[in-house]
Write a structure and sequence with these properties.
The structure holds 3 protein chains of 3 kinds. The longest helix of chain A has 17 residues. Chain A is 29% helix and 31% strand. Chain A starts with a strand and ends with a helix. Chain A has 7 helices and 15 strands. Chain A has a single domain, classed as HUPs (Rossmann fold). By secondary structure, chain B is α/β, with parallel strands linked by helices. Chain B has 2 domains: 193 residues, HUPs (Rossmann fold); 131 residues, Rossmann fold. Chain B contains 11 helices and 18 strands. The longest helix of chain B is centred in the first third of the chain and has 16 residues. Chain B starts with 5 loop residues before the first helix and ends with a helix. Chain C has 9 helices and 8 strands. By secondary structure, chain C is an alpha/beta fold. In chain C, strand 4, helix 4 and strand 5 form a beta-alpha-beta unit. Classes of the chains: A alpha/beta, B alpha/beta, C alpha/beta. Chains A and B meet through strand 3, strand 4, helix 3, helix 4 and strand 9 of A and helix 4, helix 5, strand 7, strand 9 and strand 10 of B.
Chain lengths: 262, 357, 274
Amino acid sequence: MKIVVCIKQVPATSDASIDPVTKRIVREGSKAMLNPFDLYAVEEAVRLREQAGGEVIALSMGPESAKNALVEALSMGADRAVLLSDRAFGGSDTWATSYALARAIDTLGGVDLVICGKQAVDGDTAQVGAGIAAKLDLLQAANVGKTEALDADGITVRRMHERGWDVVRLRFPALITVLKDINAPRVPTLRAARAARRAEIPVWHPADIGADPGRIGLRASPTQVVRTAPPAARSAVTTRIAGAPAEVAGELVRELLARKLL
Amino acid sequence: MKLTGEQDRQNSADVWVLAEMTGGALHPVSHELLGAARRLAADRGCRVWAVALGSDLSDAAASLIAHGADGVILVGDGRLQAFNDELECNVLERLVRKYRPEIFLGAATNRGRALIPRLASRLYAGLTADCTGLAIDPETGDLLQTRPAFGGNIMATIRSGGFRPQMATVRPKVMQALPGDRTRSGMVVRESVAPEDALHIKQILETIERRENTVNLSDARIIVAGGRAMKGPEGFALLESFAQRIGGALGASRAAVDSGWIAYPHQVGQTGQTVQADVYIACGISGQIQHLIGMQSCKTIVAIDIDDTTPMMQLADIAVKGDLFAVIPEVMKALDRAGVRRAPASTEADTEEEEQC
Amino acid sequence: MGEAVGPRSYHIEIIPPKQDSQKLEADLELFAGKFERVMESGFTASITDNAMGLLAFQGHECIEELGLRVRPEQVLIHLNTFHTKRNLDEILEACGRLGIRSLLAISGDGSPRLPRLQPADVEAEGAPAVTSVELIRYLRRHYPEFAVGAAFNPYEPEAHEFDKLERKLDAGASFLITQPILRKNAVVDRLLAAHPEVPTILEAWMSKKLYLLSDVVGYPIPEDAEYDPFATLEQLQATYPQCSFYLSLLGFKTQYARIEEMAGPARAEQEERL
């Protein structure tokens, strides 16, 4: 079976701290990391291949440096990787991004299953997975917490929701987005990591995936950012309560009642 | 749909709200969306339509109209009982192409966050997720959508003026519902599932409703959350009774979840849930950035910890230094002494009350 | 004092290459160079396990992958609780295969990327979480061929740390390594008095950046604090002649030769006695 796992490189959370005045998280530095949810997507793809055979292809769109994310996927067991990178892709919103990824998946051909993380932690939109599924007419299941069964025709998964879960059967070709509790991603071995760093990662441009130039990049993106602003600052004042348990408890309750929070 | 000229623009009108049907019942977020839609419709001088898909919609129309819809489009079909992304998307795509709404609002619930991107992708429409602000640009008449990005680090204002419909999702409890007015009247249009809508869809084999899995962190007004310093499942049992006492939902840090003390649906943070409660009571959570990203938008943050140097104790509006295992039982006693009544734990109770009046 | 550790038998900390290294091959070459030099000097290579929660490769795989020769008495592998059960067993099997005989069991620093041993993995169902105590007991029970050491932190509340120490010893720890100490330390004195039979290795901080220890010692050390690693080490050796030393952040280019010199006479003495 042929599995594509779509991954994204995002700014590293480790480069963040709290501004003491606004009490807001401030990002600094330019370090990048693989989107945390994508680790589970890669791991699930590799596990399914270990179970059913076939190959796992890691796919990402981004600058040349996004190859690092693909190297990580290869280290974890993906068989090969493809990077979509071109100035023409720049500024793509979730619509244009899912269009490009869908074109690439179509170009790879014969794909049974696409796996994405639940969402990327920089944008938090959770739109690209469903966008790819829509464009390729794949059956989809978002927020998958467990793979129940896998065979040549399809996959049965547990889709989590607010009130429990659904067990759904997707005939291939299909797309799932996965949650954190679907698996425990492996830490790459040194041998795999060395091999991954030696691997050739082809870079595909719009022409390689037969992309309509009117459907990629900033100008083809339906959403445009008009402006960005910092969020409202939190109060810098912290009411500090310390003392014997009964005293601090009483004071806390008085404080909560005074603020009309209970 | 990409607009190619002024004619295209004028062909689209009205604000649509996709009603959120959870387990066959109307979710309160539907009313909140209608509240937002009414304000937008007032600025655009247009009507508000609610669209409801489900197997039993007998009560939905009246409730939607009472809370602000000028009309409702109902698609009642047994196949719409469980959430089937492809089927709902096919139906909605057909309806949107038929009626051409200018604005389309939906709930950022698990269903909305799966369905609406699929629909937007089909329609070639702009979609902004998890909006916290919606307004009409007085100059262009376009929808301006404000949302947090980078874990609440930036507020971005987004427009998709060159495309229709302009689509947005909103999380529960973000917008204000209007008081229900049963004297309002509205048009009811019935549509059905077309044969081609159901051609290529998934099979839903089973739906499991689990009380213990029902962690409505996104709906909760108060969240009591525990971290590593809760030391084990017993610590979380204590927090659970505390949360019940004040009508809060139970949250947890990743460290506690990974230690197996509490299930993943309770996890708050970057790889868990993002929450926006009125009160967040962090108990023994040191406050790693990944956790803070998930809860920094809560209105009031209370931290209880023996160590008052942690990031969480710095971020908090109220920081209580003390031994959690001594302080929390004392807080429950103090609540009794202060005469704070036991709050109903579930938001469903609120809904029922509201529906009755 | 125990036979396993004699005076001037240094433990040299070696940190394996990081998982996100952009120059992995060069880092591996450095690792190999350090490891081989430590073997030649007759010291012990003490190899960390995802130190500070930063993802790194495992010591055993670096040794195996690079085909490095292990002198059995001269390698100490750190092992923390942030592994899957499968991974833990793989590490232990590889260590056995490589002839490694000593482990340092620590709770360790987690990271979102690292799994965590669950109580059932180490047959500690009653425990709320796996700490070094549960890990030590599991290692002693299933891998008795390894000597297992434990950490001792003189900066923790003393009663609590001694209580934990007793549990670690009870679980089967046979030697101890402390957090870095900077001078004669009263808590360490009490440790040595309480357990003279347990070989204790004192960590000496070999970096000039003393402020990096702020979190360890629990009070802020200014960035410009003056610190002479060698003067400190010499003073500690004079104060604690019965202990051997664990050298953290040792500069191989700038400091290693001097450490070899310092070890020289003592080693010669030892050999004569033998």
